[in-house]
Specification:
This protein is of the alpha+beta class. The chain has one domain (about 5-219): Glutaredoxin, CATH 3.40.30. The chain contains eight helices and eight strands. It has helices at about 5-25, 30-35, 45-50, 80-85, 105-120, 140-150, 165-170, 205-219; strands at about 60-65, 70-75, 80, 90-95, 125-130, 155-160, 185-190, 195-200. The chain has an eight-stranded mixed beta sheet with strand order 1-8-7-4-5-6-2-3, sandwiched between helices. Helix 5 packs across helix 8. It is globular and about 40 Å long.
Length: about 220
Amino acid sequence: MAPNRTALARLLGGLLALFLPLTGLPHEDHAMQAHPPVPGDPHAAHRQMLSEADSLPYLRSENRYATPAVTLTDSRGAPVPLAQLLDADEPVILSFIYTSCTTICPVLTATLSQAQDRLAKAPRKPRLVSISIDPDFDTPARLQAYAATHHAHADWHFLTGDAAAVSATQRAFDVYRGRKSNHIPVTLLRASAHSSWVRLEGFTSAVDLVREYERLLAN
């Protein structure tokens, strides 16, 4: 029988909450401690996570996050109040990426690209949002090129911004891990502004993501 992923996520979270204070490790670094970096290869931990993706299930949990009152910039250079984009009364799928990433981000973005095609004719199509965690490098032009590479539809929003706004956004959704090379694979889904966010931590397939989305709307 397949494990209950929500229960598993809660159990692991509880164990980490008990264990980390004893070790002195900060909560935000626990994922990287499981896969410590190799000198000379800042993405070694990510490569290890990718190699284990087929054997480790993603963790599913439900959380309440308050969208910060920040304004980001989209791939056309237009200002976007984040709350206006995320807190609308429609489904949203949210990810955090950066365009020069060669490990986690291409996998997450390819999965979203495949999922958008599968959901193109859904009765309630989701709004896709990808926020760069590397605002110094990821200009609107770079995001536009990245979106084109991944065949993003017009309703998939790629955002960047100043460092303070991007950091505040990461912290608000509990994805801030210090350096960009420490980031973890997380996809967030919500049915409407009045719903909890479903957090999928780990690597999902497009089939998994579509199934989670359909489950979200059915509840």
